[in-house]
Automatic annotation (TrEMBL):
This is Cupin type-2 domain-containing protein. It comes from Actinoplanes ianthinogenes. InterPro entries: Cupin_2, RmlC-like_jellyroll, RmlC_Cupin_sf. Residues 38-102 form the Cupin type-2 domain.
Length: 110
């Protein structure tokens, strides 16, 4: 058994795609699956980028907004889950800050 405590000291800063105030810690990396804890600081944003595979973002704490491409923003809060299809461009932002678990699945064995 391993207990993982995603704390500020263990999270790595991410600035890709123009992201601001984003930190991450990988929980699982496998050939077709990735599970990552993401923290968006108050006023932060995960910059617009295409999903590498089918992606689900489960908000575990806080609140924010998400959108697909240049579409409208949608409010999300703890307990909500958002799904994007592989290749779908998307952005997440938060005025108050949020923590989420991103689950990415690719290469369904085609």
């Amino acid at each position: 058994m391993e207990i993982i405590h995603p704390e500020p000291a263990t999270l790595r800063p991410i600035s890709a795609h123009g992201s601001v105030g984003l930190t991450a810690q990988a929980l699982l990396r496998a050939e077709t699956t990735a599970v990552t804890v993401l923290r968006v600081a108050p006023g932060g944003e995960i910059g617009d980028h295409p999903a590498r595979g089918d992606q689900t973002l489960l908000i575990t704490e806080g609140s924010g907004q998400v959108r697909s491409g240049a579409g409208p923003w949608h409010d999300v809060t703890a307990g909500d889950a958002v799904r994007w299809a592989a290749g779908e461009s998307h952005t997440t932002r938060s005025a108050a800050g949020l923590t989420a678990v991103a689950i990415e699945v690719s290469g369904h064995g085609g």
